[in-house]
Specification:
- This protein is mostly helical.
- The protein is built from 2 helices and no strands.
- It has one domain.
- Helix 1 crosses helix 2.
Length: about 100
């Protein structure tokens, strides 16, 4: 009877140790995934900034082409007004 209790206790200790090891590996994996999330968020921010830069360049090119054609003078004026409003908004934000 004493042997069977010792066997049961040893089995329980083994299973508890196994669970502790599994828990530790899950904690490590969570930490790794958290770091990966931070890196991916930085990557998203960088890509969004790049997209914004490209959009601004695109606007500039469109504006230059519009001015070059001179046929679309009204559209050019509207784009210039829009850019001026955006600059004004930026100035307002900077003054806050």
């Amino acid at each position: 009877m004493n042997e069977s209790i010792n066997t049961l206790v040893a089995g329980i200790e083994y299973k508890v140790q196994k669970l502790c090891n599994y828990n530790e590996s899950l904690k490590n994996e969570i930490e790794h995934l958290k770091k990966q999330i931070v890196e991916l968020k930085k990557d998203i921010d960088n890509k969004q900034e790049y997209i914004n830069t490209l959009e601004e360049k695109n606007k500039t090119i469109k504006l230059a082409k519009t001015i070059e054609n001179k046929r679309e003078l009204t559209e050019t004026k509207l784009m210039i007004n829009k850019l001026v409003r955006e600059i004004d908004e930026c100035i307002i934000m900077l003054n806050k």
